[in-house]
Amino acid sequence: MIQMSKITEAQRPRSGRARAGALAVLAVGGLLLSGCAAAPGEAGQPTAAADAGAVERPEAPAGELPAELQQRLQDALDRTLAEYDVPGAAAGVWVPGSGSWTTATGVADVAEDAPVTTEMSWPIRSITKSYTVTMVLQLADEGELRLDDTIDRYVDGVTNGDEITLLQLANMSSGVADYVTDEFFAEYVKDQTHVYTLEELNSGVLGAPAQFAPGTEYVYTNANTNLLAAVIERVTGDDYATALQARILDPLGQTGTSYTPDVADWTAPHAIGYMPDPDGAAPLPQDQNPSILGAAGAMFSTLDDGRVWADTLGSGALLRPETQALREVGHRIEKPPYDIYAVGMGETDGWLGHNGEGLGFTAATFNNPATGASIVVYANLSNLPDGAHPADQAFRALAGVLADAG
What we know:
The protein has helices at residues 16-27, 67-83, 127-141, 166-170, 182-190, 198-203, 222-236, 240-249, 303-315, 321-327, 390-405, and strands at residues 88-95, 99-109, 114-115, 122-123, 258-259, 274-275, 284-285, 299-301, 340-341, 346-348, 351-358, 361-368, 373-379. It is an alpha+beta fold.
């Protein structure tokens, strides 16, 4: 199920990292927001520090984490999976200078009692948003667009389109209508195998009443990100999948990661996604149609590619330093579970990254810039009655173990 939520608190004070990011942006004279960015290579302007061709895949820390620490991590993961009755999960923890740990726990297929493996492909759901927003930020770094451009420059028919900026779409403060409506689901149930295009998803936003005035609230929706995907296509001249491949996946060597709207193309070994049975029986397997999520949630990845992406989000390797600082400026948002949601990524207790949930899966991909450590968790259970997010809870538990270990 696609999740929608509305903020109950207009704004929460920024975290220490976000405040530092805001100051950094001010220190460089508002480069990204002022509309004065020069084209790459012009006098006085550096070329994008994140030239995709110059970025290399970060290596995993050499060796294994100490055995005692591995056991504590495994115990924390097992407790979390047991607490939420999660059938199975894959997880990894990577700590520079100390080593790596990956694990596969439980079953990928309840009926067949087939085990999870660390090599499986997983839906990463809304972690896709962090890829989409990163491409927009890259294009801003390259002078191909400005973050204070309004969406009407790229997509016609969006209510308040002459006021909503690309930055507001990226940080979920645009107020744009969502395409996830009763009418959308009524059409969806008629043919649940239909592969939706970005244009079809975005058409559900056009002309619809705004949720609120741009910049006055923070409400997390897939519609914000799918409109940004249309901007990427307009600016690059490529379809979303092609732009993603060229700008991020190929440079980072993410051979196990793809944008896959058509579930028929998900052919790699993978788990089955489940939701709890309201009658308390065995969890219910879920049909998959990632196309209903579009560029907000239709990507798939592996554990090691998740490590690479966590490292990239935390380090800002694909972006200029001032752009990375800008993307860390965030606000309180009701859901998903973060301390703050910033610009296409969230922050939880100093860890930067993104969560994903829906249609039987949850995922969490985070990096701690202060230590360089990364944590990735993929789990095959979603939409718990109490709203808990199993992968995020597991991430927090693993981060707690690292904090205790010093």
